[in-house]
Each structure stands twice: as structure tokens, then as C-alpha cells.
Amino acid sequence: MFGLNAKDTSLLLIVAVLTLLAPFILNPFPEGSDLAQFNAGYPDLMQRFVIFGIFAIGFNILFGLTGYLSFGHAAFLGVGSYAAIWMMKLLSLNIIPAIIMSVIFAGLFALAVGFISLRRSGIYFSILTLAFAQMSYALAYSVLTPITGGETGLQIKPTDRPLLSNLADGEIGRANLFGLDMRASYEMEVGGWLFTFNSGYYIAAVVMLLAFYMSIRIFRSPFGMMLRAVKSNQQRMNFTGLNSKPYTLAAFVISGMYAGLAGGLMVAMDTQVGPERMFWTASGEVVLMAILGGVGTLIGPVLGAGLIKYMENILSKINDAILHQWFAFLPDGLENALVYLIHPFIGKGWHLTLGIVFMLVVIFLPGGLVEGGQRIARIFRRKKRTDSAADAAAKTPAE
Amino acid sequence: MSKSDLTRRRVLKAGAAGLATPTIFTGAVWAGSHTGFMNAPQGDTVTLGFNVPQTGPYADEGADELRAYELAVEHLNGGGDGGMIPTFSSKTLEGNGILGKKVEYVTGDTQTKSDAARASAKSMIEKDGAIMITGGSSSGVAVAVQALCQEAGIIFMAGLTHSNDTTGKDRKANGFRHFFNSYMSGAALAPVLAANYGKDRKAYHLTADYNWGYTTEEAVVQATEAMGWETVNAVKTPLTQTDFSSYIAPVLQTDADVLVLNHYGGNMINSLTSAVQFGLREKTANGKDFEIVVPLYSRLMARGAGANVKGIFGSTNWHWSLPDAGSQAFTKSFGTKYGFPPSQAAHTVYCQTLLYADAVNRAGSFNPCAVAEALEDFEFDGLGNGKTLYRGADHQCFKDVLVVRGKENPTSEFDLLEIVEVTPVSQVTYAPDHPQMGGAEATLGSCNPGA
Amino acid sequence: MDAIILQFLNGLDKGSAYALIALGLTLIFGTLGVVNFAHGALFMIGAFCAVTLQRLLSLSHQIVDETQKDFLGNPLKVDVPYVHDWFGPAAGQTIIEWSVPLAILFAIPVMALVGVIMERGLIKHFYKRPHADQILVTFGLAIVLQEIIKAFYGANPIPTPAPPAFTGSFDFGAFIGLDPNTIIYPYWRLIYFAFAMSVIAAVFAFLQFTTFGMVVRAGMADRETVGMLGINIDKRFTVMFAIAACVAGLAGVMYTPINSPNYHMGMDFLVLSFVVVVVGGMGSLPGAVLAGFLLGVLESFASLGVVIDLIPGINQIIIYLVAIVILLTRPRGLMGRKGVMEE
Fold first, then answer.
1. Do the Cβ atoms of B211 and A152 come within 8 Å?
2. Which residues are CB-neighbours of A109 under 8 A, at least 6 positions away?
3. Domain B9-180+321-395 falls under CATH 3.40.50.2300
4. Which of A229, A284, B325, C224 is the most buried (most CB within 10 A)?
């Protein structure tokens, strides 16, 4: 189906089903229960999952296939974001032109940066991309303030009157898709559970599925083959008379456009941009997402993105009061001891947990989360001895 | 897909015990309206969102803010000694929560990044059903979260944010700031500087290269030039700079006799340390002693600069050594609970929480538009800064500003600043359309209840 | 002219910090082939060795002073450090004031120990793993280390002044025969420069003139062959890692009077030191040192008011701009060798 082999089709279908049912899957605990703290099925976080998923998928096309480690990918995300918000401020509040412009601008910027940076390889390439991104960040924060809004960033203001809009006086424009507000949600109540279906999330999710599909096609295409050849031995490839540069540059630009797409979607879901989006830690984050999930695998980067964003948004919100609530059933001494023990890892300590998770994953699962999935799948299969193709595809994407 | 911004989350959380409506309201038009706005609290509790930096360079300030919030919640719910509630001029707070609903809270980490701060605020709004968001320790975050709250229909009570923009060009109908701003720092400092250092000074500015730095530089330059000072040079320094030697050294080559450091946090500590190392304080220029000025002081940050702050002028929103009853009550309450005096960040967020609670009580409703109406042009006293006005035109508090100086002989690590002058509010008041505040173009927009 | 000399001095001073961190980073790259993202954290731990020693020396007991009041109106409890009791207030205070120089002695064993534990416990297992894995695990380690420091010391910078004897400035102008008071430079920064030069010289001498250093240099050039010669390279790697940790740690200790240390100072330096290493050329120790000083000096000149007026924002990007120009004109940085980290 869709020009994919059976294994890839089932992988795509599983991902599609998982994303579409995410409001259910991510909200396993009933409202009001102590564990509701761990629910991630609210619009903002679901949107972030798929947007950073797109970012990581795009990054993986470059890093996973060619082995070129870009340390400046956040710059493309930032450029895409700025392009999108300016489109919304000036032309239309419809997200389609904004997203198109963000992809184009990020692509052009990636072309320029890639053209220069790809003259070098290995760590020299990484530092070149890092240098470009850091320059973008520093300038956006300071001297480019008239264009970027500097520290306080850009938002849509009541005075912004896009050409193609008919806003009432003083009304603040809202991002929409042909009139459908990105923040519109439908809430479904089932027993103690509450599931939120948000229009913005579903638009982003559809875009992510398309992006994921494209990435499978790229992985399986002759072009993808060529990129893998670049990774395994560029010299040998050059000896055969093939010039690898156009291929790597194409991969770089494509992955830059993915980043721009993610940036545009971020603005579409939440209409603001700040320069921190381009700081080196943001570039580093996408590298970590890819490695954490499993470099070069199709689904890995998406899982890595999900894990990091989940920890950032859920762990950081747990505080001592919540811990006391959880352990209230225990005797006082034990309760306090447990709270004392867990305290360093939650709230302001969520970075510590993140660091430990990075280390544990890379020490025990060299192939990232995907390898973890594979191991679980193997145990599962050994037990059941029913080797279903779908299951294998879900847990073992090629590579 | 039916559009419903109105969340049922509160209903579910409250469960069956819910629907008891609180009783006494005094004549407010909004009274009794508990629907028709975002996250209307339904049960017998109400959730506030405390969004503070818990990681990154301002984590300690965030931690202090969080302590003050917890204290405020305790006092609102009738616990502890009540802190500033007895000294507060408005008497609607009776220790029974807000509008009779028990106050609960959720916390989040802004990381001092606007994206992270908005993500955290959104989760509080979407997931936890917070009715009000407050906190923050930088202007970039304050402006970003304020804009979000405006879009979502939630009240935003800003924490520590000093840039003019927050209630200047980026002001919002749903956002309120108790903290003072760059303009006020300049207006309060300039006369004190002129009185102490003379009126024919030549100033050299080093300015952090981002919005807050720009507004502070502008404010101090204008205020000091009005006193007769001359501005020799103003050099921008990168936010990420850690070693300021190459910016300090050129000061030696000019004929400037005052150095103004428009820096905050780590930048301030490092630039001040460099300036002292380069012997600027022993230097004489134009026959006068060379002086250093730090427009915005923070006690937490002053601690990092150690002995270097001694004798250096700056301004601050509040200091625990203030003798008025409100300040004393707050310091005692905070100090008894945590063992050290509160910072200005802690004070401002404590006040903001009380002011919000009181405004809801007076309005008789949690509706953001009702709360905004109650806060606008509200005059109060007893929260530590004397008589204060929450101006309706830009949602900025107007109150006395403290000019402080680094203490020569501190008795403890908290006793670093001494109050030189309490600048009366009349001296720091400006017109809502002041050019530094975005001019005539700046507008609050209209209040958004979110549903 | 005065301004140029001053900025040159500033550049050398900044360059000293860059060069010291880059030197350690290159030692680890070159010998062990590991991309160590935790190197900034080692610098930070070094700085906190100074803080820790300062705290240890100022360990106090409290005396109630009835004449003064604390902020709650109770009698003030005055902290009296034990060293004041033991050596008298004057001598005791001097000991506390000298805690930064003393911390050098304290930091060497601590950093060596940290280095050995890190290498034996973690890095060792990553020699054969892809660079991506090394980045992830050392980055994770860096986060864990800095969070631990944050848990103990908070997030705010902690003042660690130099001893009063070194707080003044040196009149460099008068020294070289110009007008007095035109070029003055803080003593401590001059000491930092001298200190950096001696550490760098010591590391080079160690590699150049000892058998151990010879083997390590051979290992840097061709690890496999050296391994085949039957030399126990593993043990030497551990020692090298410990040395690199010490270099980073000492750079941190001495840096504390210049900038008050905080828990994320390592991250602030991390990216910059990677740029320095790469501009110098992968695996080249002289390259790292040269690039450190070069970037330090250029950064200083870019922050002159006249330069900023000429090209707004140049002070924000100079280091990265120079890095790009150098890497485009010299493919392997200033002194890099072919084939190192180019895949």
C-alpha cells in the first residue's frame, strides 16, 4: 500500500492508529485520581509530541542516513518559526501560507548553511553548523530585535491586521485553518475519564504522518541508498566517480525543511516565537532525541522526542505537595522518608532524572529505545511463539 | 467538531461534593456568575498556577518565589499567622480561601525560556484547570506568558519582571504587574545619584544586549541627563558573556567618572566583579572619585558579588528591613517558616497572590474580566510599599521605590543592602502613553474571559 | 595604543581559560578517542573544589550576640569560624582569605580521583562505541554532575574572592615605560595567565620528556600499533584521563576569583571549548592552545566600542565567525591531522 512494502505499511498504519488515538492512550488515568499527574493527553503536550517528532524525523534523515551530525538544526526551526509568525502578522491568519513559508525559508537557509558546511566532514562539519546556529541565536536575541522581537520574541498583537482577515477592532487574531481555530477542542467524558480532541493536535498529527510517510519513502529509495553509502564509505564512493556532495546537500536541505515545518507548526499551534528556540541546547536536544530513540531507525527519533518532552512537561510539575498526597496512606515517618527520597528527582530536579535516563539508556540499550522495544518483542515472541508480521514491524523497523 | 473551551475538568475533579455555591457577595454585578469563562472553578477548591524558573540561572529566585507562594496559599486558607493579610488595607480575606473555595496550586518550571514557560503555563490551563497563572523571573518569559494568558482568557499576575515592555508596549488586558520597572528605577535613582555624586558627571553605560537592558539603559540615561549628567558611551554586552574584562578595560581609557552596569543576575555579578578588579573604585577621573551604579539590585544576586557591592547604589522593589507593619509581618512570617528573610521576588509574588485573591472576593467572581475590573485603579496599602495604585490604564502598580546601597558592614549573609531613600510614588509616576512605555500605540486590548 | 595593549592582555587572559579547557579536551580526544561532553562539568567541579574548601575553612560555631538583633528581632547569632579560635581572628581570617590558592592543593587529588572514577566506571566502556553514544552518555553525566552540585550549593553564583594581597591592579603602563595609570591590569588575572602558561608547559614537558608521555604520544598517533606492541595502553589511558581532569579542574579553581562560580558554568564553557578544539585542529595539543589564545584575543578586540559601532553585533558572533573562516580556509583547523574525527 502507498508504494511501501508490507512491513513498512504496517509500521505506518500502527503509527497512524497510535497518533489518532493518542488522546485516549495518553490519558490512561481517570481525572481526580492521584495518578492523573502522569496523564499527557492534553492538547499542548500532544502537539509538542508530534511537532518534535517531525523535527526529529527530519534530523534523522540527515544524521541517520548520512552520518553527518548537525549541531545547529534548531536554527532552521527558528527561521521557520519567524517566517511563519510574520506571515500571520502580515498576510493571513490561516496556517497554510505560514507553514509553506516556514518550510521555504528554512529550506533556503539550510541550502546556504549546507552548501558551506558540507565542504567539511566529521566534527568539522558539526562545528560549522553549530557556529551558524549560534550566530543566528545571538543576532536574533540582540541586534536583530526589530525583526525578531529580541528577548521578548514575537506574538500576534491586537494591533496586527493581516491583509486577508476581517478582525473586529481590538480583537487578537487566532491561528486557524479555513476558520477552524487551532485551540478548538471537543471534550469527551467517559466515566471518570476526560478525553480532549483538539483540532490543532489532529492537524499537526496528520502533518506528522505525512512527514513520517515521506521519511519511509526516502529511507527505501535509491536516494536513501546513496546516502547510506555516504555514511559507510564516502571515499570509496568518490573513487567510483560519483560526487556525493549533491546527495548530502539534498539530505541536509530536506532535513532543514522538516525543521522549518516543525517551526511553522509550533507557531501555528502557539502563536509566538522566542530566540531561545535557536540556542545550542535546542540543537543538542534533537541530537539527543535521535540517539535516545535509536539513530537511523524510522520510529526511534519520534520515541526519543516523546520521552524527552514527556519528562520535561510532566516530571517538572510534580512537587512535594503532590508527593505527600500520593503517599498519604503511609504512616507519617515512612511518608516523609519516601518524599525525601524522591524529592531530588522531581520538580526542579527533573534535569537530574533526564541525565540519569540518558546514561541508563545508552549504557544498557546501545540501540536506543527501539532496541529496548526489540528486546521486549523477542521475549514476548519466545513466550507466545506466534510471530505476527505486524508486531515484528512495529518493534523492528528496518536498519 | 464542536468548539468548547469551557472545561469540564473542574467538575470532574470536584466530584459529587461540588456544587455548593459560596454565600456572601456584596453587590458586585459579576456576583454569582460562575460559568462563561475559562476554567471556571466548580467544586469547593480553586487552582492557581505557579510558574517559576526551577532550573537554569534564576533557579534560586524561582525557589524563593515558590516559598512565598506556598506561604500565601497557607495564609489564604487560614493557616499560619496570616502574614500580610491583617495589615492589608482591603479586608475581604478571611482565611477561608478565595470566595470560600479552598486554594490549591500547581507548580511548573519556566526554565527562563519563553517556549518552556508557555508549555508549562498551557499545561496548567489545559490539564490542571488553573484559573490564574503567576510567576517568572525575567521579562522575556513574563511577556510570553502574559500574551498566552491573554489568548487563553486567564489572569496573569507577573512575578519579577522589570522591563518597561511588560506593562509598556507589550501590556495586555489580562496581565498585571506589581513589580516596579526600568523607568521607575531611573526616576528614583537619578536624584539620589545627583545628590551624592554631583550634577556634572560623565557616565559610561554597559548594557545587556536584550530588551530589558535597552529599556533600563534608556530610562537611566534619560533620568540622569535630566539631572545634568553627560552620557559618554553606551556599549552592549552579549547575554552569554561570562568574562566582562574586555568591556571594562576600555572604560579606563575614557574620561568617564561613573560606570552604570545595566546588567542583572549572573551578568551583574561578573561585570561588577571585573569592574572592581580593574581598580575602578580606587580610580579618580576629572578630579572626582570614580563611581559604579547598578540600576536593579537583587539581594540574592548581590550575595554572589560578595564584598564588591559595598557602597554601590541601586534600586530595588522591596527589602525585608523596611520598618512598616506589612513588611515586618511578611518578614516575620516568612522568616519563621524558612529561617531566612524573603527576597524582593518572594515579596512581589506574595503580594500578587493576595491582590488576586482580594480582587476575586471584591468582584464576587473568578471571571477574568470581573477580576481585572476589580484590580483596575484599585488603591491599597499595607503590603509593604506604602500606598499603592494598580493603574487601570496599563495594569502597573505605582508605589514607592527603594534606593539602596551595598552595606559596608553586613551582620549576616542576608544583610547586604541598606535603604538610602524611599522615593515617593509621585516622583516615579509617568503617563500611560510615555514614549518609553510604547507611546500612544501601546494598548491593553480588551479583556478576554476565554469562553 | 593603550586600548590595544589592554585588549591584548584581556585576550591572553580569556585565552588562558579557553586554552586550558581545550587542552584537557584534546588530551581526551586525542588519546582515548572519546568526545567528552562532561569536560565542562570537570571545569565546574574544579571551581567548586575552591568553594568547598572555602566552606570547610569557614566552618563555624555560633555565638549569641545580645547587643545585635537579627532580622526577626531575636538576638543575633554570630558565626565564628573554628580557624579563628585555633589561630586567632587575624591569622584565621587570612587562612580563609587564602582558600582559593590553597584549593589548588585540595583540587589535585579530588580531580584525579574524579577522573579515575569517571574513566574506570563509565568512559572505559565507551571506547569502541560510536561517537553519538559517547556524546549522549557524557552529556547525561554532565547533567547529573551539575544537578548534584546545584542540590548542594544552589543555583546562584557564590563569591570566592582572591586573597587581599592579589586584589589590586598592576600598573602595566608604568612598567613598560608609558604614562602611569593608563594601562592597569588586575594582579589575579596576570597570575591566571602565568598559571595557565605553567600548566600548559608542564603538560607539554610531561608528554615530551617522559617515557610515559612518549607512549601516550605514540598512542595518539596510532593507537592500534601501540596496542600491538604489547604496551598496556589501558592503564595509561586512565592516567591521561586523570591528568586531563586535573587540568580542567585547576583551570576552574583559579578561575573562581574572576567569575563567581555557579553550577552551569561548565555548560557555558563547553560549546566554546569545543569550538576552540576544532579550530585548533582535532588531536593537536599545540593547535588547541594556539586557537584558545587566538579566539580569546579576537573576542577582546571585537568588544571594543569602536568595533561594535562599525559592525553592530560583531561582539556576539566573532568567535563563531572566525571559526567558520578558519575551517573553510584550513580544512582541519589550524594544526589538525588528516583522518582524525572526520568520519
1. yes
2. A75, A76, A79, A256, A260
3. yes
4. A284
pLDDT digits (tens, 9 = 90+) for C162-206: 898 888 888 877 777 777 777 788 899 999 999 999 999 999 999
Instruction: Provide the residue type at C311 as one letter.
Output: I
In order of A380, B245, C202, the CA distances from B352 in angstroms are 55, 39, 58
CB contacts of B107 in chain A (<8 Å) are: 317, 319, 347
pLDDT value, residue A389 = 45
A144's CB contacts (< 8 A; 6+ apart) are A150, C313
The pair phi, psi for residue C36, each rounded to 5°, is -100, 95
Q: Which helix (H) or strand (E) holds B9?
A: helix B9-14
Helix, strand or coil, per DSSP, at residue B279:
coil
Query: How many C-beta neighbours within 10 Å does residue A246 have?
Result: 11
Name the H helices within C79-232: 82-87, 89-97, 99-121, 131-153, 172-175, 187-209, 211-221, 223-228
Q: What's the average model confidence in pLDDT over B272-298?
A: 89
Place of cell 518493534: A395
Instruction: Give pLDDT tens digits for B194-221.
Output: 999 999 999 999 999 888 999 999 999 9
Q: Which residues of A touch C278 (CB under 8 A)?
A: 123-124, 127
Whole-angstrom distance, CA of residue B405 vs CA of residue B403: 7
Contact C143 A142 (CB under 8 A): no
DSSP string, A332-349: HHHHHHHHHHHGGGSGGG
* Domain chopping of chain A, boundaries: 6-278
**Best A317, A319, A351 residue to mutate vs chain B (most B CBs within 10 Å):** A317
* Residue spans of alpha helices (H) in B87-202: 114-126, 139-152, 182-197
pLDDT in tens, A55-105: 999 999 999 999 999 999 999 999 999 999 999 999 989 999 999 999 999
Measure the CA–CA gap between A272 and A274, rounded to whole angstroms: 7
Q: Give the Cα separation of B145 and A55 in Å (integer).
A: 24
Please give the Cα distance from C303 to C233 (Å, whole number): 45
User: Inter-axis angle of helices A300-314 and A43-66, to 10 degrees?
Assistant: 140
Q: For residue B228, which phi and psi values (nearest 5 degrees)?
A: 105, 0
How many angstroms separate the CA of residue B238 from the nearest CA in chain C? Answer: 6
Mean pLDDT of A197-223: 94
Given this structure, which CATH class describes domain A6-278?
Answer: mainly alpha
The CA-atom distances, in angstroms, between B142 and each of A55, A151, B162, C131 are 27, 11, 10, 39
- pLDDT tens-digit readout, C275-305: 999 999 888 889 999 999 999 999 999 988 8
Write the residue in B12, B148, B151 that is nearest to A192 by C-beta: B12
Please check whether residue C311 touches A, CB under 8 A: no
Specify the DSSP element, H or E, that contains B284.
Answer: strand B284-285
CATH superfamily of B183-316+404-426: Response regulator (3.40.50.2300)
Q: Grid coordinates standing for C63?
A: 555565638
Q: What's the CA gap between B108 and B227, in Å, rounded?
A: 44
The C-alpha atoms of residue A64 and residue A126 are separated, in whole angstroms, by 14
pLDDT at B445: 87
**What is the biggest distance separating any 2 CA atoms in chain A, rounded to whole angstroms?**
75
Q: Give bridge partners of residue C80 from the DSSP assignment.
A: C61
Tell me the count of A-B CB pairs closer than 8 A: 155
Q: Is the pTM of this model over 0.95?
A: no
Are A170 and B15 a contacting pair at CB < 8 A?
no
* Radius of gyration, CA atoms only, chain A: 22
Smallest CA–CA distance, residue A81 to chain B, in Å, is: 12
Q: For residues B399 and B422, what is the distance between their CA atoms, to the nearest angstrom?
A: 10
Contact of B303 with B410, CB cutoff 8 Å: no
A159 contacts B123? CB cut-off 8 A: no
Are A48 and B150 within 8 A, CB to CB? no
